Amino acid sequence: MHHYPGYGPGGPLAAYWQGHITLRLLRVLVEHLPPAGAVGRAVSGTPWGGAEYQLAELLDRVGRMETDFRNANRAEGKPQLDYPEPVWRPGDPTPKQKAKAARKADRKARQGYQRIVAIATPQYAEKG
C-alpha cells in the first residue's frame, strides 16, 4: 500500500490515522490489493504466487518433453531414461526431510523384522 502516490511517509494507513483519508477509502484500498502481493501470499498460506506455480509446472513439462524426445531418439538397445524429479514447491519435503523420513522408515522396518525374528525364532533374536 505504501507505493500509492500522494500519501506521504507511512502510506494510506498513516494518512488514515492522520485524518487525511476515510476508513471507507482505506477499506477499498485494502480490498483491492493484488493477490500476488505480500498480504495475498500471507492469506493464502504460501510464499509463491500463481506465476511461480505456473513456472514450476512449465519446467516440469519441459523436462518430461525433453526426456520423451531423448527416449524416442535414443540408440538401439540403450535403456530408456527416467523422467526428472519435479521442481520443488512450497509444502513439498526438502531433500533433507526426505532423507530423514527414509531413515526413520528403515529403522521402523528393521525393528519390525527383529520383532518377528524374536517371536518366530527366539534363539536368533538380537539381545540388547
Q: What does the model show?
A:
The protein has 3 domains: 11-44, no CATH class; 48-92, no CATH class; 93-128. It is mostly helical and 128 residues long. The protein contains 5 helices and no strands. The protein has helices at 11-17, 23-31, 38-44, 50-72, 95-120.
Q: What coarse outline follows from CA principal-axis ratios?
A: flat
Order of secondary-structure elements: HHHHH
The count of strands amounts to 0
Low-confidence segments = none
Query: What's the structural domain tally?
Result: 3
Helix share of residues? 55-70%
| Share of residues in strands | under 5%
**Major beta sheet, specifics?**
none
Structural class, by secondary structure, is mainly alpha
Write a brief structural summary.
Helix content is 56%, strand content 0%. With 128 residues, it is mostly helical.
